[in-house]
Design brief:
Rossmann fold; binds the ligand C/C(=C\CNc1ncnc2c1ncn2[C@@H]1O[C@H](COP(=O)(O)O)[C@@H](O)[C@H]1O)CO; alpha/beta
Amino acid sequence: MTESRKIRRAGPLTFHGEAIPETTTDQRLLDRRGPAEWVHTDPWRVMRIQSEFVEGFGLLSEVGQAVSVFGSARTRPDSPHYTLGETVGAKLAGAGYTVITGGGPGMMEAANKGAQKAGGTSIGLGIELPFEQSLNEYIDIGVTFRYFFVRKTMFVKYSQAFVVMPGGFGTLDELFEAITLVQTGKVTRFPVVLVGTAFWGGLRDWIRKNLLEEGLISPGDPDIMYLTDDPDDVVSIIRDAHVNLARKDAEAETENGT
Ligand SMILES: C/C(=C\CNc1ncnc2c1ncn2[C@@H]1O[C@H](COP(=O)(O)O)[C@@H](O)[C@H]1O)CO
């Protein structure tokens, strides 16, 4: 009778005889610490980035129709802009939209507050910053990201419109990212509504004069942005855009015979 060769199965792998490792996978994981520098390397960061996507998708994938509201982190609660942001948040919630913001103070807080007080769902997608900051107190569901670009993906993927209140560099970054995505056809069903004609009118004029007249954008591009002062308009612009898109979808389906 021949002596049977030793065998080790490790997950999908099978080792025989001399090929059997000295330790098991669990021993290598649990039995010693080893050096720690690798947690500060890019390959490990990729894993952390991946886990942020996983957490974000997991948290937000069951959220219904949602609108992201952007605006200054510095607006004070006694500012008329704050009151306007609160009203916009409330109107969006009243129309059945979940309100998503950056979860911070100022206009983000205003929109979250309005949405929550109106009985809607209020979400904050916070960002780790060099200084201590917690999510504002008007958030039902919150997550804090390490990476700006992961967080930006969440705003775009899980909202059906962007509302942009008065703000500074961060707000402008979010606005220009949104209109670039629409301009390049990366998102196709996405109204971008700027609230505050006195605040935003100058930017729209500048875009028309300097970008359109110079041929740096196409004639239809300025129209990617809607401008209004009226919170009711915000809701109807978004609703109408979605109704039009649904109608176009239905027409396309009929044409394709699907
Ligand atoms: C400046 C202060 C706090 C910053 N905290 C923020 N928390 C969450 N999100 C933020 C914060 N700052 C900027 N953002 C994002 O950019 C937009 C606002 O930027 P702006 O430069 O103030 O216009 C906003 O929509 C966020 O998504 C001190 O309190």
